[in-house]
Amino acid sequence: MRSSVRPSRWRGLEQGDRRLVRAKLETKMLLQIHDELVFEAPEAEVGRVVAIARTQMEQVYPLKVPLVADVGVGASWGEAH
């Protein structure tokens, strides 16, 4: 079932995923855990993926205070933290 009304964070996820597809990247968004996204990306794409994900999550909704997205990179979830 798909709803026409989504929380704002889903908007950011969908837009970010579309940007990955449009950029013809091999990167895949694997899952979301609470406020965290997990991607699988070839090393050559990491910089572009970080930029896309950070931009989408920080600009998903206009706020009066800055929304900062922290990024961790590693071969596993544990290494990225």
UniProtKB/TrEMBL annotation:
Gene3D superfamilies the record matches: 3.30.70.370
Organism placement in taxonomy: Bacteria, Pseudomonadati, Myxococcota, Polyangia, Nannocystales
Pfam families named among the record's database cross-references: DNA_pol_A
Molecular function per GO: DNA binding; DNA-directed DNA polymerase activity
Record has Transmembrane as a keyword: no
Lineage top rank: taxon: Bacteria
Name of the protein described by the UniProt record: DNA-directed DNA polymerase
Catalytic activity of the protein: DNA(n) + a 2'-deoxyribonucleoside 5'-triphosphate = DNA(n+1) + diphosphate
GO BP annotations, alphabetical order: DNA-templated DNA replication; double-strand break repair
Domain DNA-directed DNA polymerase family A palm stretches: 17-79
EC number(s) recorded for this UniProt protein: 2.7.7.7
Main EC class the enzyme belongs to: transferase
